[in-house]
Amino acid sequence: MTQNNILIRRYIIVGERRLSNYWWAIVIFLGSCGFLATGLCSYLGIPNWLNLFNTASNMLAENQEPSLTTLPFFPQGLLMSFYGSLGFLLSIYWSLLIFWNVGGGFNEFNKKDGFVRIFRWGYPGKNRKIDLSYSLKDIEAIRVELKQGIDSQRTIYLRLKGKREIPLTGIGQPLTLKEIEKQASELANFLQVSLEA
After folding, report:
1. 120: which strand partners?
2. What Pfam family does this protein match (any one) (predicted)?
3. Boundaries of CATH 2.30.29 in the chain?
4. What gap in Å lies between CA 120 and CA 20, rounded to an integer?
């Protein structure tokens, strides 16, 4: 380990670029395309190609020829179009969050220059970059908060003078209890401050 690695620690925060977000953006997009296609087919009065699979499997079980039927536009086709539009907009929003990497960034603890830097990407606009910097002298403690239950939360906080607390862990991808304890104790030892639960 070099001298700089001993004096500087950087923890990467993933943000929205997680595999689960890519998965759900693609699944919602494909599902919404199916709903929109069904709604559009019912509006135009043409048989829906998606209905072919369901009809064919039912007819083959009864040894009949599959026939396509049109879905009435009101109310079924209209609702399918509505749900497809909502799903499409949601998938675009989710894709933009992934592209912008909202919540991603890093926590840097620099003993060499005597500061802590917390950087996060936000939504586009005036406050896109959230870049906080504090002196190491202002740090009082590292606090760990554990909330158990259905939506359990495990968060590491950086407590500064004046009782201000800044969360250091990312949202949406919780660490295990062992990982949170290890990271918090390493950080408290590195900064030479107390560790609170």
Report:
1. 105, 130
2. Ycf4
3. 104-195
4. 20
13: Cα separation from own chain's centroid: 11
pLDDT tens for residues 132-148?
A: 999 999 999 999 998 88
Angle at 143 between CA 138 and CA 145, to 5 degrees: 150
The pair of structure tokens assigned to 97 is: 């969050």
104-195: CATH number: 2.30.29
DSSP 104: -
Distance, in Å, from the CA atom of 17 to the CA atom of 101, rounded to the nearest integer, reads 6
